Amino acid sequence: MQPKPRRALAFDFSMRRIGLAFGDEVSGVAQPLKTLFALGLKPDWVGIEKAILEWEPDLLIVGLPLNEDGSDQTNSRPARAFGQKLQGRTRKPVTFIDERLSTKEAQWQQKESIVTGKKGKAAFTDAIAASLILQTWLDQQTTNRYDPSR
Description:
By secondary structure, the protein is α/β, with parallel strands linked by helices. The protein has a single domain (7-19, 37-146), classed as 2-Layer Sandwich (Nucleotidyltransferase, domain 5). Helices cover 39% and strands 23% of the residues. The protein is built from 4 helices and 5 strands; from the N terminus they run E-E-E-H-E-H-E-H-H. A 5-stranded mixed β-sheet has the order 3-2-1-4-5, sandwiched between helices. Helix 2 links the parallel strand 4 (59-64) and strand 5 (94-98).
């Protein structure tokens, strides 16, 4: 029996802004949604909970910042703590995905107007980064599901 396709909401976490993106295993495509701003260095939990109610994800994906060699960096601990609080508050499973270079790629895409069709809108970069993190997860699910070596 084939497992039910899942819907996921992804977060590109930082102490100042959190980008959000949504995607599902049926389409296999992640779409940037919006960026929430921290309230006194605390996540905008009201905004996060509204997004979860609106998009009804089965699981939550949090970008994990790592160094080039795969080791933790300064922001790894706060991202893990955010993911743990997110899971505790929502009772939904949380998966961490390596987010190396996602912000640089998002900045490049925005600069080239690939995603937004407009120049500017710096805060939307975080939502684009969240969509890149989520796309990584979606691509992994497709690879795992259809891997002929399994």
